[in-house]
């Protein structure tokens, strides 16, 4: 994606995400107030009319996601965003979007849970995002940006991926990323491809009527539909895995973290390297599909993994599945809106490295 | 020899697919869907009409209408219609809903779509029960009426009184046309068609939100013969659900304008 055809602007993540959506061709945004994503609805309410699009503050999160459903069904690029409790309410709509094969972008600016939780930043919706909080056999892509620039890039990418697969795509932000300001480049005309949508409900002029539905009362028909959907999800798993590694080549201890926490781990990695520890960072960018193969390949050299998350331990399960018990996988997390410090991560890695060294000596 | 004049006076509307519906004997959905199809044909809007089927007996509407149709999650139909109409104002969008869909699980969506004055048409089929799931109490079930979940009859002091939707929505300033009709006689069916046509015409004219409630028979879950169900509507349902127009803002505005034009210039 072009990064240099515009001026750098200082923006908070929520504003930048909203602007990126508009530049990507989103002309329908429906949302409901919830902290810490309120900048998105405010920004959209100001900018959408200027861009010739629709902003509507819905009566509920349920209504917002179903307005997105309607806009997507008639062929528009549509988006909604919320934060954790609101995303729970949208799960019904996400299941219907997936079942009806409608493209849409949903952003979750995560906050602490469960229940009403806190308005502090969190990553505790990992399970909900990657397993599907709604009912039925479905999957959707989950993009996990770790900078405001990536939030912009992922938002633009999300619209393309949604259209390519006719499936909802989730951008998983959090309260820090949404609120923090960083310089960003938002291309005036990003490279984006909105395909023709012959399936859309645009009026049956000169063609047979189109139907958007997820109801298949004949069980074998529904099974066939689910097999078709699965084939699509398999293509996503094959083609859309994204991740980044840092100093992984000689790493003996591998940090695994996504989003905001990956930034903290990056700083910790610098400090640990300065002290002579061979530490690397593996950062999944797509949380679904999870970069299983790439992570598994690192276990040849890595002696132990430390998964760091702003939750009580969610992605760590995927890491353990990928590593298949061949190496110890430890977890360090803060929850409820609390954020770990660089020092805390450093401490954990040093303790882990010391244990591994001791167990290595004991074995020899 | 006498000249024979042949003229088509009644036929399958183009907007209906020539298929047999799944509706029970004496059900009103088939009549309502035929009326909609006739109106869509008469207004010449078939190629830009999008219907939305609810969750409930009418969900299979997309198998019967010969134009674009979407499904919607239970009760969310007015939100889906809002998204469609806001994205593509040139389309004619109607939301077809039953009483459970509209007046129970979808109460928030219908009230706020009405309150925003969305330029859509809502067809609200009130048969007083949940049909698809086997005849449970609906928000519109009559006091004393026995259903699967009110075996001793609906007791308003316990579960609320039958909800009157158009009367309630008439309190929303931005609504345009609110009416209630019934399918218990040919005369009432013709009246229903006139109301429905107005509701579609208003949308085509950009006049705003219309809702037509149609009191419809469900002999299966009322436990009566189809003919008896029509009598039941007349004797029991209509006294609680009076027929008529509760609001016609567009007609009122036109009348006021007409009166203004006739008034002598000052």
Summarize this structure as a short list of keywords or feature phrases.
heterodimer; A: about 375 residues; alpha/beta; Rossmann fold; 5-stranded mixed β-sheet; about 45% helix; globular; disordered N terminus; B: about 270 residues; 7-stranded mixed β-sheet; two-stranded antiparallel ribbon
Task: Describe, in plain words, how this protein is organized in 3D.
The complex is a heterodimer of chains A (364) and B (266). Chain A is an alpha/beta fold and 364 residues long. Chain A folds into two domains: 8-201 and 212-239, Rossmann fold, CATH 3.40.50; 245-363, Rossmann fold (3-Layer(aba) Sandwich). Helix content of chain A is 43%, strand content 19%. Chain A contains twelve helices and 15 strands. Chain A has helices at residues 13-23, 38-50, 61-73, 84-100, 126-131, 148-165, 175-179, 219-239, 259-274, 292-297, 315-323, 342-363; strands at residues 8-12, 28-31, 54-57, 78-82, 104-110, 141-143, 168-174, 181-185, 211-212, 243-246, 253-256, 279-284, 286-288, 304-309, 329-333. In chain A, the strands form three sheets. In chain A, strands 3-2-4-5-7-6-13 form a seven-stranded mixed beta sheet, sandwiched between helices. The longest helix of chain A is centred in the C-terminal third of the chain and has 22 residues, at 342-363. The model of chain A is unreliable at 1-5 (pLDDT under 50). Chain B is α/β, with parallel strands linked by helices and 266 residues long. Chain B has a single domain, classed as Thiamin diphosphate (ThDP)-binding fold, Pyr/PP domains (Rossmann fold), CATH 3.40.50. Chain B is 40% helix and 17% strand. Chain B contains eleven helices and nine strands. Chain B has helices at residues 29-43, 61-64, 77-87, 99-105, 107-115, 156-159, 165-169, 186-204, 219-222, 226-240, 249-262; strands at residues 49-53, 68-71, 92-98, 121-126, 129-130, 136-137, 175-182, 209-215, 244-248. In chain B, strands 2-1-3-4-8-7-9 form a seven-stranded mixed beta sheet, sandwiched between helices. In chain B, strand 7 (175-182), helix 8 and strand 8 (209-215) form a beta-alpha-beta unit. The longest helix of chain B has 19 residues, at 186-204. The interface between A and B is large, with 40 and 34 residues.
